[in-house]
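Students often ask why we bother encoding 3D structure as a string. The short answer is that it lets us treat folding as translation between two languages. Here is a chain of 553 residues written in the first language.
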Amino acid sequence: MSVEFRQRSVGEYIKMLTRRKWLIALPALAMMIAVGYVVYKLPSLYESTSLLTLKPPTISPTLVQSLTEEDLSQRLQTISQEVLSRSELEPMVLKYRLFEEERNAGMPMELVIDQMRRNIRVELEQTDREKVAAFRVAYRDRSPEAARNVTAELASKFVNAQVISQTQRAETTKEFIDGQLNNAKMNLDALEKQRLDIMMKNVETLPESSQGLIAQLDGLRKREETIAKEKETLITEKGRLNDSIRALNSQARLIEDFGGKEAEDAIREATDVEKTPAYAQLIQKRAELSAKLENLKLSLRDKHPEVVKAKNDIEKINEEIENLRKNAQMRVKSATAASTRKAELQKQNLLIEKQKIESQIAQIEKQLQYKDQELQQNASQIAALEAKINTIPNVKVALESINTQYQSAKATYDDLLKKKNNAELMVGVESNAQGETIRVQDPANLPSSPTNASKKPMLVVLGAGFGLAFGLFLAGIFEVPRLFTVQNIEDAKHYTGLPVLASVPALLSVEEIERQKRTYWFKVIAGAAVAFGSIPLIIMILQATKIFERVVS
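And here it is in the second language, the structure alphabet:
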């Protein structure tokens, strides 16, 4: 069976806070002292401001267009990037000895410049005087004199940068228009030269010369027909000679085939030794001697004179057979040489005839090449004449087109010439500061009181509040577990559901009461020692993190 948690009354919560009053008060007091010390040691920051307004032009507005607030905002952003660059701010840091503590501590110049940019404020605002566009430049520093000097120099840089920017823009516009004007002049000159070139190049293709060109074209075409006929005759003769060469090649192949067959027949007759009578007699005689040798071996030894003689006779017969074969090879060579010589003589005759025909073909090919060259030359002359004839109708059109382009370019040149005069006028206006310029309306003031003085008490209260919250957290750590235990008669009634007939208070002796008092005050003194002992540590942490410097800067 579960029992709901008993809700405490306000009085009970007040008793809890009273019971833990030192646990709550000591952290709040320690934090307030530490924050107060750090805030007291914070350097005072002085802010100097300067109001800059947009001076109306001193000449007619028809020549100079007034800037709108949007145009001023865009231009202000552009000028700010130039004025707040490192090359502009670093000399001011060294000149007015800004951030000496940081620079002596070894802070890089990049970080010093970034810190300086954070201290600079540039913002647009609307003045009460006929809603003149204006903006304010402000700078914060630890020294009021440095704040005023830096603000005044920044204001002068904005004024100078705006004048330089306007002058450069006018000069850039003039240079751009000058370039465009030069290009337009070059275009005019080029068109004039192009018109003259067309007239010079088309002297031969004027309309009055068209009849002569047509007559020349007819003569060249007739000559082309004559050369083509001569070329066809040469091609026919070349084909006939090529047919003769093919016939000679066929005869040469027949001679080679016939000579090969004769050589094969002679070789076959010369190499067929076995069919000769001498070869048959030698074979028969060798067979008789071999039979005789076999009979002698049956009754006699191998070294017997008759056996040895029979062997020698057989070897002589073998030598005669071998000689007979060698003589056959010689006959083959002589027969082959004879048939080859005969075929070569016939082929030489055919080759001589073929060379004569090839020389004739070579001469014909030279003539054909010459005719081709004549045809190419004639065709090129025809093409040139046709091009000239075709150009005649276009000459007039080309000249009219050039004249039209020239008139258009002349109008563009005149318009650019007017713009150049206007740009020169604008350069004079900006150089003499007669246009719309920025001027210092309210110079930089010398601040008399620091801007961060009002924030210091708030920071001390904030530190005390943080310490109080930490003390309440510590008190909660000790008191929250007690809420889930039975502490008094009301808890006993609620969690048991039974009536309480009587309660017995804690009975302590005098010594126990004195011991409790001493323990209580010992804890209070120990807590105070810890709280006040942590103050230097808290101060070191706050100074190292520079939290409050960021808040008040």
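Translate back mentally: Confidence is low (pLDDT under 50) at residues 60-67. Keep this in mind for the problem set.
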